[in-house]
Give the backbone structure.
Amino acid sequence: TDTVKKYADFNYDHGFCNKGPEKKERWWKGPLYCGWGDQVETGAKMKINELNFAHQEFYSKLSDRLDELDLHPTAMIIDDKWQGKYGELLPDPKKWPDMRAFVDAQHAKGRKVMLWVKVWNAEGLDADECLTLEQQPYAADPTNPKYQKRLRETVHKLLSADEGCFNCDGFKLDFVNCIFMTKELRTYEKNVYGIELVKRMMKLFYDAAKAAKPDALINNSCSHPYFAEITDQVRI
């Protein structure tokens, strides 16, 4: 722990990285409950793909089970695959006929609700929102104005308490650390690749989330202090 702190402080003190905001919400510290383990276990027992259990009825039962066990997580994470399409990033209406009702019910129990996100995945995106590899759409492009607009609007719909929105409370961002380095990669904005492309994606999510809900939690797997200014919690 001391070594990690000294390394981070070295980067901050020399201006290589910026510290994150000082304000930390109590609920961010957990305990957090993630439904992935139960999805996998249930899928294995029933010999059904675990992705099929990311639906409202299953998570409602998990919520009731937490109550039965007298467990009180500060948040519940809905995991893979609540989305209809990964890139489109909206609830599958067949799995989640009323996600807002589920979220409001969790809030009534004193729990926040977070959503698992498969970052970069282009499923459901238009070709002109994607970075390309060998002239073919390959992944979501955070430098692309059309994708930026889509993501800001989608994040608002997912996190805002406004009418017609889902009122969720943050994201567990997965696959963030997939870094694209090949020379054949083409982004909307030229010469953005590698770690800088990752940071662009992270900043896009972070800024959109905070605009929709200031206390939203951004959890991800980028642990370097370079990402401290655009993340709230590291998953290790």
